[in-house]
Amino acid sequence: MLRYALPLATIVAVAVAGCTTQTTSNDSSGKFRGDERLVANTIEDFESAASKGDQDQICRELLAKPLVATYVRRGGTCEKAVDGVLKDSDSFGLTVESVRIAGAQATARVKADRGDNDVIQSLTLVKEGPGWRISQFGSG
Q: How far is the C-alpha of 87 from the C-alpha of 93, rounded, in Å?
């Protein structure tokens, strides 16, 4: 795996949970409205694509263009970076706890349920066209 995949590896590792299928009862985007809901939907789509191993969808539709370009500039491809990370993880589950929007940038607080050891992660998203894309994987 490329060493530049570390930010993506961080969130995918956080996303590892006990369930490999997504059901509507686990859909955390329903508690949001407007652009906040669109941000949460992007994260839900990331969760779904990761659980299916669909690195093409993640790179093409869910990651911001500058983040994808970073993988390419550093000698790899986004798909290879995502593929390596997904192969190291067997299941995915995320809950969007909160969304804060400031202009064309959003920060989402995301929780991976791990029983007594819940992990909180921040994601930064940017507005690209009509939708939101993940631009940065932060820390807890």
A: 16
Q: What is the pTM of this model?
A: 0.78
List, for residues 97-136, the tens digit of each pLDDT value.
Answer: 999 999 999 999 998 766 677 788 899 999 999 999 999 8
Main-chain dihedrals φ then ψ at residue 132, nearest 5 degrees: -115, 140
Pairing of strands 131-137, 95-102: unpaired
User: What tokens were used for 118?
Assistant: 């819940």
- Residue 26 φ/ψ, nearest 5 degrees: -95, 0
Residue type, 79: E
With H, G, I as helix, E, B as strand and everything else as coil, classify residue 137: strand
Q: Which two tokens stand for residue 48?
A: 């779904």
